[in-house]
């Protein structure tokens, strides 16, 4: 493997999330090769066909035609030397234990910050298992969007933790509020002290999570759920 140009196989049934994840990885590995699979069948087909084999698979646990935990051994048999980093919208102690038992390289929350994702990917590429579950934050109330870089790097770790299994993080609430105003990703990134790719990845994840087909629909659904104030 060329450390500066690894081959990633991104397996997730939501194209927007895959695209955001790929863009974020490309920011840190500009020469990386990105391969995409939208379901379990495509993942297995790519595992058989890709030559050279991928250096890391990032696999969503829940796919429409398979389950990453239950079917992991099948993928590992096709790619015996390739680590598999699992992704899930919900990370708990039971799933962490199952992922470890099945020989995954790690388990990563899909709401993790870009910094956390990069750390997990680097560890997996180096052969170091990554199994950690952040302590949950208290359930946050709807917030007014702060300005002037209040979400700068020093606060990312605290803000990217999940409030609960069903609640968005404070950072995601802030982004949803911006979506309601029609604010472009570049402007959101500037106001929140994030990179544009981090914002793009969060928007992709939120759109998927809310079963929305547009940014405005995601905002409307967030308002309906009481995640943000109208």
Account of the 3D structure:
This protein is 43% helix and 13% strand. It is of the alpha/beta class. The protein has 2 domains: 7-131, Rossmann fold (3-Layer(aba) Sandwich), CATH 3.40.50.2300; 153-224, Orthogonal Bundle (Arc Repressor Mutant, subunit A), CATH 1.10.10.10. The strands form 2 sheets. Strands 2-1-3-6-7-8 form a 6-stranded parallel sheet, sandwiched between helices. Helix 7 (170-181) packs across helix 10 and helix 8 (185-192) crosses helix 9.
Helices and strands, with pairings:
Layout: E1 7-11, H1 15-28, E2 33-37, H2 40-49, E3 56-60, E4 62-63, E5 66-67, H3 72-78, E6 84-88, H4 93-101, E7 106-109, H5 114-125, E8 130-131, H6 156-159, H7 170-181, H8 185-192, H9 196-209, H10 215-224
Parallel strand pairs: 1-2, 1-3, 3-6, 6-7, 7-8
Antiparallel strand pairs: 4-5
Helix pairs in contact: 1-9, 7-10, 8-9
The helix fraction, in percent, is 40-55%
Average of the residue pLDDT scores: 80
Quickly name the level 1 CATH class of the largest domain: Alpha Beta
CATH topology of the largest domain: Rossmann fold
Distance between the termini: 49 Å
Unreliable segments of 5+ consecutive residues: 134-165
General form: globular
Side by side, the strands of the main sheet go: 2-1-3-6-7-8
Oligomeric state of shown chains: single chain
Beta-strand portion reads 5-15%
Order of H and E elements: EHEHEEEHEHEHEHHHHH
Largest sheet features: 6 strands, parallel
CATH superfamily of the largest domain: Response regulator
Q: What is the CA-atom radius of gyration, in angstroms?
A: 17 Å
> How would you classify the helix and strand content by structural class?
alpha/beta
Count of helix runs:
10
CATH architectural name of the largest domain = 3-Layer(aba) Sandwich
Count of beta strands: 8
Q: How many structural domains? A: 2
